[in-house]
# Entry
Amino acid sequence: MCGIAGIWNLDGAPVIPAELDRFTDSLAHRGPDGRGTYLDPQGGFGLGHRRLAILDLSPGGHQPMSSADGRYWISFNGEIYNFIELRGELEAKGHRFRTDSDTEVILAAYAEWGSDCQLRFNGMWGFAIWDQQERTLFVSRDRFGVKPLHYVWEDRRFAFASEMKAFLCLEDFAAEFDLPLLAYVVDGGVHIEGTESCLLHQVKRLRGGHCLFLRQGGEPRINRWWNTLDHLETVPRRFADQVGRYHELFFDACRLRMRSDVPIGTALSGGLDSSSVLCAMAQIKAGTGGGERLASAWQRAFVATYPGTPQDERAYAEQVADFVGIAPSYHTIDPAQGVANLDNFLFQFEEIQDFHLGPWLVYREMSRSGIKVSMDGHGGDETLAGYHHYPRAALREAVWPWPNLRRWADLQTTLQEMYPAGAAPPAPSLANVLGAELTPLRRRLRQRVLSLPLVRPALKSVFGAWRTPPDPATGWLRISTCPPPAPELPADRRRAGQLGALGERLYRDFHLTILPTILRNFDRLSMAHGVEIRAPFMDWRLVCYAFSLPSASKLGGGYTKRILREAMKGVLPEPIRTRRSKIGFATPIEHWLRDELRPIVLDSVHSRPFLESAVWNGPALRDMVIAAYAAGDMNRLQLVWRYLQAMRLMELFASRRSSQVQ
# Structure
């Protein structure tokens, strides 16, 4: 896991070494163990790399790395977990290796199979391969976008980097925010990570499952190389057989991700997913040892605690730690730490969302304890229906097109049990669910009627324009928002719809909305301290299998993530395996806004940059904040946090830009 960067001056101008150094070293937090640059001898192209040494700690793992014949050069961020198996296959084809790294395996695989090598990798990555002979560049991002990759393409220059803020180091880069997109984000639009749009208007995101090819004199050509819907499989009909296969895949995913030449740890919440990962590791090590190159030290668990808040799950984490037989490190999340490190946190996070202080501090503690790898539970909720809205989606399947009252009752119970005692909202009624199911039919019928000749012109003449653009000045925004284009293709939408209401929602959340945002957030939160996150639930084999399962294997018997719970019988402590409530890795921001963050909030809303913003109505927001504090309305105060975060992030980018290019 590292930070990568590259510059290609398409007009042939030489890459300035000092500029490449700045560009590379802006990612030093991602790779504190070493650095390297490569300048093409013919000029015009350069690669940069910041190293986080996890596999092959010797100088042989140094990057940028060349192939044995010197033709290809690579800068790579990520891990290829099946590199040992691929190395054996490539050696049988005549390839010879000088290192014990997975990086060299990527080079040999690309030389052997070209871009098809991507389909052979089990891992997470963002990498760029320069063909010195053909003067072409190949850039790839893993199937699900676990690792980041951003790029800028202008007429005379192509540049790429692991993070958006790295581009602040480039000469002639216009570090301007996309203000309509910024307005969309502060107004509550959070899911831009599944698109190519970024807050800086010149920067694009290479989406997960896509690669980019650039030739001298040409334009970047982006290809989609992965579609999960193309890799679904036929699952066993018997639930017991489904459970057996899931158990096999999950344990193998954990085993592969335990390959490390440094100690690994776990960010343990006490929830089902992170607990399953930790307990699976314990069983793997207690068995045959698990195989080649597994970390010898894995027994470090780090737990964030929020005493006195609903987000505190320490009691559950203690049960898991006792069951496995380890002594975890507990870290009380002190908001004063957030106040003291606020600018550092906001700049490293480089996005606008919630104040994820807890994970940021936990990964900092990991780094200070010498841990570079964290085995976490990301992806479990979005493949196996772990959130509160999934039973609601499944309820539609229970009544449409044919009612199944037993399934309906089971899902109603599942939904109610996910909330703490006495906190569950009213369950959806049959009429509400049927109404939601019929709404698309009514919409399509209305569209067909409106498409009839003379209908639309007649209505327009009577009622005026179809749509009256909203007046942003009447609310908190001074400009209209601009949501990024929807990333899915119509063909994907139709095919995902065949998975049923629950499967379609899971597909969107996993590939386009919720999970891409979570992966982005935790990449920034962990790599700010040089800690790599590995997520067994993101193994492509496990993902494809999960999306192939029927809904009842995910939600059933009164439980979410039913198949995982069955697969972990005897592996997890029973109170954790059968726990039904869902909390999530949240931050008690409402408590902090009331107390520790209050001076920052009040100072910010009274500042000139906030009041004179061209994006939002500063005076109206200031008055709302004052009234909310007077009334003790923390719900309204939470709405203003993104505006404050946006203002400070723009100021930090401007100041860092000024200091970098001087």
